[in-house]
Amino acid sequence: MSAKEQILARIRRALPEPRPDADIPRDYLQAHGARTPAETVDLLAANLAEYRAKVHRVDEDGIAVLLARLLAERGASSVLVPPGLPPHWLAAADPTRIHDREASTPYELDAVDSVVTGCALAIAETGTIVLDGGPEQGRRRITLVPDHHICVVRVPAQVVDSVPQALPLLDPTRPLTWISGPSATSDIELDRVEGVHGPRTLEVILLGAQ
Amino acid sequence: MTGTYLGMPAFPDAAREAVRDEVLRANLRHATHTIRDKRARAVAELEDWDRLRAAGKAVKDHTLAHLDRYLLQLEAAVTAAGGTVHWAADADEANRIVTELVRATGEREVVKVKSMATQEIGLNEALEAAGIAAYETDLAELIVQLGHDRPSHILVPAIHRNRGEIRDIFAAEMGDWGRPAPEGLGDDPRELAEAARLHLREKFLRAKVAVSGANFMVAETGTLVVFESEGNGRMCLTLPETLISVVGIEKVIPTFRDLEIFLQTLPRSSTAERMNPYTTMWTGTADGDGPSVFHLVLLDNGRTDTLADEVGRQALRCIRCSACLNVCPVYERAGGHAYGSVYPGPIGAILSPQLRGTGSEIDATLPYASTLCGACYEVCPVAIDIPEVLVHLRERVVQGGPVTREGIRVRIRPADGHTAERAAMRAARLLLDRPDALRAGERLLARARRLRPRRLPGPGRAWTDSRELPELPERSFRDWWAAREKAAREKGARP
Ligand code: SF4
């Protein structure tokens, strides 16, 4: 008997028949509190900041100048660019553009200073941005290997209140990365240290009418 | 389970050693109290916590009741998404499968994401025996691995080490495994984390094969989910060409939507955060993004035997958040190593004797590694009634009775030579010798009292037929303990 047949047989022997389907009680909340869209964006900003992300707000007209300034402050000489990033976002920025290519080696990515991406959506209650590999976001590794990640969230369109509101909007067949603040560890005497292997600096730009 | 912990002394002996270690106790006390206070605040933020907890319990129970159906659905979905599924009945089979898969790549080293399943089966040792080096990449696991040590906590495996000890381990050992620690390394956590970053980065960048576990597997979509904080998980899950995930069969859940429950309860219960810094979800392989080869090894290794026990099977609901460890007065004193398995604390006390059987002395004594104060049940995000299972397992040890081992229904005899009685009395003495442990037990008991069931359901019922579960704190903890254990002995002595 194969291991598969063996395991399935053991399961069936362990459980009494008949096994009716259970109703899952889903009376938990779909969101914790009622907010206006503006309040939801404020909550996202507050929760991101509490988890040590740097939060900026800007409108379409200001984004190119803001991105140029953030990259300059960082001293970045190169920046990774996903294929679908709106070109005008980086129109004023100095660093050399490195394009997200399948052929790049991890070593090449490690030599890049910063990365700028969009996102699939953001969750206010938990301070989370979710990436799904879409054209404005690129492959998972480009937001991982460089030490500085700038993520642009369109507000309020891309912001939801809660985790239960987020899941129906996501496509599980795409690779998903949920990011809540920069990489961190608490493994040494529970002292929180930011930036172990992922980017040590996460900046989030809330892009929308101010 | 693995040979790693074979030859462990019984729980009371190991625990007595640990409580004598003042450094260990101070480290543990600091850590468990910090986490449990933070956790209480994070949970209190969600007014629907009890409903989320009930829903999580219901999803897991429903899945376990139809485990065959959901595993087949999962297999089909993972296969359709470009992955390959393997089934492993026990540790040896799983180790053989992984070893062969790594060999087939031609590589001699793998990077690993912290995974209890691979610790449970002793995968690192099996790979080493086959000439393959396995590098742990979680900071705490790195500390444990470099220290030639064993993990002592589910979430913070190196909780028993303080910064000075970690510095010494890094300075002495890193050079043997790759990039050495910087000259003059200090003991500031920042500096230590930076040393780990540099040491591991060279491994991440060159790695061709990674081995992981998973927190959840979604049957409907074939999606695997890993929660983490440091980014080492993301490195292992996305940079290498081949990814091999070894996952216990109880980790499956039916639908993608079900994640909405656990994405809320797991981070708050484990790291006391609204959300952990990184969660990775992947479904088979994706074109040009991440590993091009994905293998999923579904692990039984005692889980179907646990499923066959209608009281004990609830242990399979566990989502390994570790909240029960941090509130346990016995864990706080004894430390994780005393439990003699990769699953320490209250969950270890009910899971290990079921996965491995109660044949060894350590497994026969684990059901006694508790004051039955109920705090573990109170914090558990999937409402596992750990005290109920402990009492049930004590009954098995003392009285014998029907159990399933390797798929076969057998009757075990009462433990030889009064193993259980001795274990119980020694565990009692362990606590009675420590007035502070006693006080903690009493305090928690008083708080948890209202939550205790008055009668035990299932096969444990006979035990409570003639007596209610103890009322407290009308009687002192000491009296209660003595009376309970006397009752258990009398019950066990009856023909
Ligand atoms: S038994 Fe419950 S509290 Fe303990 S680790 Fe498992 S899920 Fe968490």
Name some characteristics of this structure.
heterodimer, A: about 210 residues, four-stranded mixed β-sheet, globular, B: about 500 residues, alpha/beta, six-stranded parallel β-sheet, binds iron/sulfur cluster
Structure description:
The complex is a heterodimer of chains A (about 210) and B (about 500). Chain A is built from 5 helices and 12 strands. With about 210 residues, chain A is of the alpha/beta class. In chain B, a hairpin with a 2-residue loop joins strand 11 and strand 12. In chain B, helix 2 packs across helix 12 and helix 20 runs antiparallel to helix 23. Chain B has about 500 residues and is α/β, with parallel strands linked by helices. Classes of the chains: A alpha/beta (about 210), B alpha/beta (about 500). Chains A and B meet through helix 1, helix 4, strand 9 and strand 10 of A and helix 2, helix 3, helix 4, strand 1 and helix 8 of B. Iron/sulfur cluster binds next to helix 14 of chain B.
Instruction: Give the oligomeric state of the chains in this entry, treating copies of one chain as homo and distinct chains as hetero.
Output: heterodimer
Radius of gyration of chain A: 21 Å
Main pleated-sheet profile of chain A? 6 strands, parallel
Stretches of chain B where pLDDT is under 50 for at least 5 consecutive residues are 438-481
